[in-house]
Fold:
Amino acid sequence: MSSKQVIFERVQSALARHTIAHEEVSFENLILDTKEDLLEEYTHFQELNRSEVIHSTPQNLITEIKNALIAFESQKLLYATDLPCDLGQLEGAYETIPYDKPVEDFKEAIFQIDTAILKGVCGVANLGMVGVISSPASPRLTSLITLKCILLLEKTAIVRDLAQGLAILKAQQADRLPTNMLFIGGPSRTADIELKTVFGVHGPMAVRVILY
Structure:
């Protein structure tokens, strides 16, 4: 009998000679803080991502938008044209600019706009992110070009995880994928080699999410 066969036989008979005791082990993930209520979980992680989260209703959207503009000390507002409310109710208090033309047509003015507002497609509860897609009504620069950003999100559009959120974004256009999909997790931030965090490098430095 070769040494290889001897080793195999010993391995096969090992459990018969030396049984292994099995114990049921209960596992609790101490890192992932999940909550039963999706809205509570979403709010928790959005705030960890340094976003301001406001709980509102469809009827009070304009009021909360006004409050956000006051807090941001906004003057010029760039807005997507598919919002669930009429910004005409702002009563001329701000210069409102619809994003309804190519950026080349107002590229000199767009960098002078301080605040943008757009609607999110979905929210990802366990990451605290807002999912958005680019479209003619909400071009891709809407969430990136200004230093402050207001995101409107329906409470019923919040899902548990990234896979579910991605499926919702993909389903927004039946015949093809959206040209651009973004998951926004609070203000843009980066850190250098000394681990000094800087906000607003790649996008807004302040984000307020209004849930309705």
Remarks:
- The mean pLDDT is 90.
- The CA atoms of residues 7 and 13 lie 10 Å apart.
